[in-house]
Amino acid sequence: MPASPGRVTGPATRLVNVESRAPSGLFPSGPPRPTFREPHPVRIGALLSGAGLTAAWLLSFGLLATSARGYIWLTLTASAAAWLCALALMRFGDRGVAAGVAITTGMGVAVAAGLVVQRWLTVGWPLW
What is the SS3 string spanning 88-113? Predict the structure, then answer.
């Protein structure tokens, strides 16, 4: 497809206004800034699949608990395993899935921390 008159093609593709005049020099500008791109971009499908699987992982551990103390400890244990998995995925696998795992695990730990605070304020320290 041939390039349109208002478009410059090449390694630094950017839109150019054909009707504009040359700058006056009052506001000096240097060469065009480089465009940086992520070599391994995070895709939304991978992020959502990692988030969904991690939510199921934390739910399955949370359903095993019989008390608030058990829920907190099981959630922290499952979260530690999920974070290790996210680190491995970040290094050797898909960064989108790793981001989904990390985000959902952080939310799961926040729920467990909220339960700790709620139980601490009403009953007493729940973990010992």
Answer: HHHHHCCHHHHHHHHHHHHHHHHHHH
pTM: predicted TM-score of the whole model, two decimal places: 0.69
Which tens digits make up the pLDDT trace of 39-80?
Answer: 778 899 999 999 999 999 999 999 999 999 999 999 999 999
Quick check: 101 and 91 in contact, CB under 8 A? no
Cβ(14)–Cβ(32) below 8 Å: yes
Helix (H) or strand (E) holding 1: none
The H or E element spanning position 69 is helix 68-92
Q: Other C-beta atoms within 10 Å of 101: how many?
A: 28
Q: What is the CA radius of gyration of the chain?
A: 25
Angle between helices 44-62 and 68-92 (to 10 degrees): 150
- d(CA 34, CA 14) in angstroms, rounded, equals 11
